[in-house]
Amino acid sequence: MKVLLIQPPEFHMITTNVPSVVDEESGAYPPLGLLYVAAYLEKHTRHTVEILDTILEHLNYEQIEDEIRRRKPDLVGIQAMTFTLIDAALTAQAVKRVDRTIPVVFGGPHVYIYPHETMTIPEVDYIVVGEGEHTFTHLVETLAEGKNLAAVNGIGYRDKGEIKLTPLVPLNTHLDDLPMPARHLVPQNRYYSVLAKEVPITTMMTSRGCPMQCIFCDRPHLGKQFRYRSPQNVVDEMEACEKMGIREIFVYDDTFTIRRDRVLEICRQKIERGLKIQWDIRAHINTITGEVLDALAAAGCARIHYGVEAGTKEITKVLKKGIDLDRTREVFTKTKARGITTLGYFMIGNPGETKEQALETIEFARKLDADFIHLSVATPFPATELYRMGFERGLYKQDYWRDFARNPRPDFQPELWEEVMSRDELINLMQWGYRRYYMRAGYIMKRVLELRSWGEFRRKARAGLRLLSWGSKARAV
């Protein structure tokens, strides 16, 4: 059997946020989830596996149909996230236009949250609910052998027109058993990021699940249990990436630094092996110490992403961040002092937040003086505590995300938290905040002086021009 895994386009991506220098349009990142599924399928079966990254290839739907005709798959798997659901559905339609007999399988975070609703999409024949490596492989083998689908846990299918959902598969607690992502199936040398000093880049996962309690977290499919790979297994993959010619790794863990001993051991082994590849991590303020920063800096960690979110203690408490703002200032200062680039995530429009408090967050971000910031408007994502709070407080009258899951339509616009400020006020304030942060003469000069290559200049210049184009539309606040 020939299996084709597709990363769908993002022509109809659902978003409330304007572009930034750190969003998906400022880079091309490997489809890590599909690479893991492909690697597991290759290791445990004899089926042929291919990956089509339509975002990297800039394919429209007519071109996707051409690829389907050329590749002649026996089964197609499509990654489905809520924000790209429209494009996932349109990709499935493209498959069926070529050949209606080709089975289409949906998997991904959206499917976990809305399995029954996903199965109501006519072009979807099967779904994989939860972590996909083992379940998708079991489904493919069962279909190839013509066996009973009811024996496959973690899937959805139709039986005489009736939707059937089988029991979920427990979360994988033995991540070392997973094969390394199948990077040989994609043009790895073409992936890049505006944040990276060098290219090509890749993505990597060293753990799954996050025990933090942030009310806006939109990754319920990974659970709250921190499941992690061993330091040796992690550094083995870093070494393999370096041998492939990859220059930087973006570690996609929700919080890489949960276990201090593990972080220190990964750094020690990377140094011991003499690996030069740089890496980028996400960390929680409360997990950072001087010892951890020293180890990360010595091991070539180029950048740390910190989720700060708010610049007032009242809002950090509402968001259940559990961080102290004075400690946050200290961590950013110590990180920068060790030559590690910083990126701060911030949100405005949170529950109960006034305009004055939102402005305090923007000013707090400016005083932290991170190398980059990502400023967004708080959006109640499906299956989050923030979304549930909206119903409890009477802001929302109907489950609009579930309605969208049943009927993904291009004109859909997610609700914001308009308890204090209107949508227009929030979007304008975000634009103004971006302009206030990035359009500082001192900031621009600093970034220019740090440039290492013409390629890096081109990537950052494009991002800067995008910022300038929409930031100029912000009204005075």
In short:
Mean pLDDT is 92; it is low at 18-25. The protein has two domains: 2-165, Cobalamin-binding domain (Rossmann fold); 187-379 and 416-471, TIM Barrel.
Keywords:
477 residues, alpha/beta, Rossmann fold, TIM Barrel, 7-stranded mixed sheet, 18 helices, 17 strands
The Rg value, from CA coordinates, equals: 22 Å
CATH class identity of the largest domain: Alpha Beta
Please state the average pLDDT score: 92
CATH fold assignment of the largest domain: TIM Barrel
Topology, number of strands? 17
Instruction: Give the helix tally.
Output: 18
Shape category = globular
As residue ranges, the low-confidence spans are: 18-25
Helix and strand content put the structural class at alpha/beta
The count of domains is 2
What's the arrangement of strands in the largest beta sheet? 3-1-4-5-6-7-8
Q: What CATH architecture of the largest domain would you give? A: Alpha-Beta Barrel
Largest β sheet strand count, sense and barrel closure? 7 strands, mixed
Q: Tell me the fraction of residues in β-strands, as a range.
A: 15-25%
Share in helix:
40-55%
Let me know the CATH homologous superfamily of the largest domain.
Aldolase class I
Q: Give the terminus-to-terminus CA distance.
A: 59 Å
